[in-house]
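pinned: reference chain
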Amino acid sequence: MSEYDVETPDSKGQVEATVPAYSWYALCVLVVVYVLNFIDRQILSILANDIKADLGVDDAYLGFLYGTAFAIFYALFGIPLGKLADSWKRIRLMTLGLTLWSAMTAVSGFARDAGTLTVARIGVGVGEATASPSAYSLISDWFPARLRATALAIYSSGLYIGGGVSLAIGGLVVDNWNNAFPDGGPLGLAGWQAAFIAVGLPGLLLALWVFTLREPARGAIDGLSTPEDPHPFRGFVRELYTIIPGFTFFGAASRGALSLALNIAVFIGSIALAYALTEILKSGPGRILPWITDQWFLLAIGYYAVFSWATALRVRDYPTFALTWGSPAFLCTILGYGTVAFMAYSASYWGAPYAERVFDVSKGELGFWLGGGGAVGGFLGVILGGRMADALFTRMQAGRVWVILFGLLSPIPFAVVQYTTESFGLFIVLNVVVGALAASALGAAAASSQALVLPRMRGTATATFFLATTLVGLALGPYTAGYVSAQNDGNLSIGVLSTLWITPIGLALLVAAIRLVPHANRTVVERAKAAGEVFD
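pinned: its structure tokens
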């Protein structure tokens, strides 16, 4: 390939390229990291009802804890960490992040109140923000374009394996701990606290293994070799200043009076909207929900911070802005997948609390069947979806987007039956089906976002992709289901199914992406050059 070649279904050379064995080994290590990533994140599901009882919180707070409190910091720190992944050693970055999120997961086990648990989960979000920007960039340098959707799907399988294993481990630890220590164990820890500690500490050992991986040459596999940044942390610090409210005003002022005025107006508008939503929701059916102020004001700060970052990116690195925020194809693709995540995160998180309340089963049994089925379904779905995406991509440029659309629509009828059935067996079977169908979209969405940018932009593109996944899917989906449940006397069936309202929005976005992506794929280099990108 020449330095101006981009990813196409029939890119010469890549069809014949042999993937080194080390690339597959390194991918396996990354899968283990992602498994632990989601064990530490998803274990909250099987522990939710115990946390609710011990800390005196409701479903709205549980949705906030799993969704918004984690997602805002995961998404926002993903921006500077994505930039660092584009300029520094990705192996080192992932090692540091893994150490942080594992330690904060263990700290969650010592929480005695909702505030402490929230702060610990925020720490988990910051640490986990290092994983996927680094991993996506590494995988794109280890595997040729023809196998990237497959490789990214294999990596993404860790999400479903980890999510399933977390339920099994959590249920096993809680049941055995509470049986052994019915009045509280060492240090007065309850079973749910012991479960956090049990899954957090192994990550500190895994970090040592990750540190032994070799860093690949950035962009070499695509013929777009990118030299190392001699000052990798300058961009990271600069990005931090663009997302921290308060400092964002100074950053906007440096771009002129008009930029400052617009930035202040967006900040005031975001806070006003958060206040209005808070007041409206407080005037619901005679009930003021705890933590609701944090939900909407935290989201307002998050969306404002993203706006500040995007406007700063436009000035500092216009080619990257043009291929991400300035690209309708890119935005429709990532936001379309965000709607898939909106429903998928809600169903996966609330599945265990729902089943525990509706069916007469122990945590251990529930964790085995629900976690095992979820892991199998998610794994098969993401792998087969990745292969389907690669196969369709060889036939048409929009092939991957069709797989995302399939992942949006196909789970809906099965989810409706799953959250209304009175049969535990049918609930478990449908959990496998729904998980597999929703998971089929992930590898396709990830590969699509990577194909629409240059190699040096992949970390930032990944961070932007995860903004949609987290600020649309994770921050809003689980909370919406929890809020609706709390408004309906803890009816999680109504809560989870209420998230289906987002389907028409996702459908419109993905239909637009199908029309836009083919041309955008073919013109990556041309659009980058038009935006001012300089090629050696």
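why pinned: Confidence is low (pLDDT under 50) at residues 1-5, 10-15, 283-293. The radius of gyration is 22 Å.
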